[in-house]
C-alpha cells in the first residue's frame, strides 16, 4: 500500500530518501535510549525512562501530525518529538541531566525527569504564539493515564473553533477546527479509570482525537493477562466501534514493527479524525521493550527466554532493516554505515549536553574555592577551611548542592572574622540565583497575572434594596460574560438545559447554544480535562463541578496537571481554566463538606477563591477573565436564594484577588473566616456586643493568594487577639490560615492571648439540620469561644458561662 501511494506522489529515489531519513532518526533515538541508560547507571543522570522499542510507530504518527495539532502523551515518545523537530540529541541528554537552563533543556528546564515533553506556546511576555504555525505538545506528566483528560479538551477545542463564530484571534489557535489531538499511552495504563472515562467522553462528544496504545504486553513487570480483559484493549473496546447512524470510534489495529502498514494506518486515522471529527483508537501491538520499563531494573527478571528471543527478532528497528533490504532501499553495508554514524552523532550530542551542564557549575566551584582560599589566609580556622576547600575542589562533577553546602559550613567557622560579610553575600546571591531556577513560575509572573486586575466596585441604583436572589446576580453576570467574551464557555452536570442545579445559568443555553453552555455526563475528572485542554488552546472555559465534595474525583488532575502546568513548563504553557463549584453547607456527608485544607495543599499553582455571596463570586469571574491564571471559585451553597442588591454594571465589577475585606470594625478581638461561615460570625458578633465584646470581622475572600496587603495583622495589632473560624476539620484550612498570619505576617508580636481556631468536628457533617448544627461551628459556638477567650483576659467582667 505504501508503495502504491508513494509511486503516485514521489519517485522511488525520493521515497528511498524519506525512508532512510526515518531509519536514521529511529537509530538515533535508539542509541539515545541505550546510552541514556548507561548515563544513569554511571551516576551522571538520576533516573531514565526511554522510548526504545516504540520508534517506528512514532515515526508513522509524526508523518500524519500537522502544524496546529496537539499531542497529549506518554513519557516514551522521544522518537516522535525528534521526528517533528522538537527534540535534539543534545536536548534529550540535557533533560536526562536535569539542566536548569530552558535554552538547553526546553521541555521543563530540569523540573521533570527525561521523557516528559512539551513545546512552547507562549512568548516571553506570556502572550500566545500562533499555535497553528507550529507542532504542539502539551506538557507531559508522570501519573499513568493522567494525560487522558487533557487530551479530551485539546480535541474538543477543534470542535468549538469549527462551530462557534466570533472567537477573537481564532486564527492563532485553529484552522477552522481541522486540528487533531493525538494521545499516546502504554497498554497497561489503559487499565486506569481515566482512560475509560476519556474514551467514553470522546465518543459522546465526537471530537477529533487519535488515541495510540503502545502495546508491548507488559506494565512494568506485570503481564497483560493481569491488566486487561482478554489481554487486548481493542478487543474489549469493540462496542465503541461506530456503526451507521451511531456515534463512536473508528478502531484500527496494526503491528508496531510494520513500517509500511503503520504509515498507511496513521494516514487513514488522520483523514477520519481531521475531516469528520470522529475519534480513532489505534491499537499498536507486537511492540517490544528492549531495556525493560526503566533504568531501575532489568526485564530479564520477569520475561522468559522465549519472550526475550521474540523481542529480539521482532524489534521494530530490526524489522525495518529487513524490510529496507528486501525492497532495495538500502544494502546491509549501507545500513551498518548509518548505524555507525548514528552512534557517533549521539555520542557527540551527549558530550555537548554534559559539557553545557557541568561547565557552568565547575566555574561556580572555582569561584567559591578561590574565595575560600582567600578567606582561609587570615582565619584562625585556616586548616579546617582549606580542608573544606580541598574536598570541594576534588569533586570532578560537582553539584550545586555540594558547592552551597561547603560555603554554608565554612560560614560557621568565620562568624567573627573579616571574611564573613563577603562569604555571606556570596551565599545569599548564589542561593537566590539558584533557587529561582527551581522555584519560579508556580503562578504567572507576567503582566497578565491576577494582581494586574484593578478592583471595580459594583454600581447600584439609588436606594437599592437587598431584594434580588443571589443566583440571579450570577445569572445576569454570566449573561454579560458570554456576550463580552465569545471565547468563554461553561459546561458541567446539569449546567445546560436546566441552567445548573441552583439556576445560576438559567436561560443561558437557550441564548448561547449547546456548545457554549453544555450539559456533560457524570465524569468530574474529564470535566476538568475538557477545561485544561481547551484553555491550552486559547479558549476561556469554565468547568463546573456540581458540589465541592465531588471535587475529589478531579483533585488528581487538578493537582498533577493544572496546578503544575506553568511551573513544569517554566512559564512556556498556560491553561487559564476557571473551575466553578459550590460548597460548605447543605445536607449530609457528601453535600456539605469543606475539605479546604486538602484542596489548598494539593493545588498550589491554582488560586482558591471563597466568596461569601454571589456578587463577590461574580466579581471574581470578571477578574479572572482579565488575567491568565487558573482558579477555583467556591460559591456558597446556601446563598443562592439569599437576597442581595442588584448591580448595574454586570460583567464589569471586579472583586480583587488576594485582598481581604473588613466587614465590621472592633476593638477587642479579630475574627477571621470566609464563605458561608461569615454569616454565623456576623450573627455571633452582634450578640457579643450585647455583653460588651466588640469584634472585628475579616472576610479572607481568597485562600490562595492570602491577604497580600497583610491587613489581618493590622487588625490584630489593634485588638491583640485572634480567632479563626473554619468549616474544615481541625488542623485543616485553619492551620494554613494561622501559619500565614502568625508566621508570615508576624502577628505573634501583637498577641496578648493565645491565637485559637474554631473548626468543624473531625468527622464529616451528619445529615439534617441537627447534623449540621452538631458537626460544624454554630453561632452559639462562636459566641462561647470568643466569650471564653475574653473570660481569660478579664474573668470578673466576663464570668464563666459553664
Automatic annotation (TrEMBL):
Cofactor(s) of this protein: thiamine diphosphate
Record domain Transketolase-like pyrimidine-binding: where: 468-642
One matching Pfam family: Transketolase_C
Annotated EC: 1.2.4.4
Enzyme class, spelled out: oxidoreductase
Domain of life of the organism encoding this protein: Bacteria
Annotated Gene3D superfamilies: 3.40.50.920, 3.40.50.970
InterPro entries cross-referenced by the UniProt entry: DH_E1, THDP-binding, Transketo_C/PFOR_II, Transketolase-like_Pyr-bd, Transketolase_C
Keywords: Oxidoreductase, Thiamine pyrophosphate
Role, per record: E1 component of the 2-oxoglutarate dehydrogenase (OGDH) complex which catalyzes the decarboxylation of 2-oxoglutarate, the first step in the conversion of 2-oxoglutarate to succinyl-CoA and CO(2).
PANTHER family recorded: 2-OXOISOVALERATE DEHYDROGENASE SUBUNIT BETA, MITOCHONDRIAL, 2-OXOISOVALERATE DEHYDROGENASE SUBUNIT BETA-RELATED
Name of the featured protein: 3-methyl-2-oxobutanoate dehydrogenase (2-methylpropanoyl-transferring)
Provenance organism: Flavobacterium algoritolerans
Record lineage: Bacteria, Pseudomonadati, Bacteroidota, Flavobacteriia, Flavobacteriales
